[in-house]
Amino acid sequence: MVIRDIASLAEYRLDKMGKADVASTSRFFLxxxxxxxxxxxxxxxxxxxxxxxxxxxxxGEAAVGEEESIVGPGDVIVAESDAPHALKNPGxxxxxxxVFMAPPPQKKKT
Length: 110
Known about the structure:
- There is one protein chain.
- This protein has strands at 18-24, 29-35, 40-44, 50-57, 60-64, 67-71, 76-79, 85-88, 95-102.
- With 110 residues, it is mainly β.
- It has one domain (18-102): Jelly Rolls, CATH 2.60.120.10.
- A five-stranded antiparallel beta sheet has the order 1-2-9-4-7, with no helix packed on it.
- The radius of gyration is 13 Å and the shape is globular.
């Protein structure tokens, strides 16, 4: 599989951070987190999953545990399983991050 122009798959929302699924296998997930100015992905954890954000566009504020950093295009944020992490777009432009998770999130049962 080849994915071209991943940024064109972004799904921004005005009410909350947008998400777009890009690719998934039984062992890996790739998605996009799409932030309008002021939007936040609040501090949270993932039990049994490692997560990596790759900043594609814009600037943001990242936190992993007690460490906080200003991030921009080309920067990578790594959160190992159970590590609290967050990402915020202080603005003024949009923030777009590719999100890699292993193993992939489980589908919610309905």
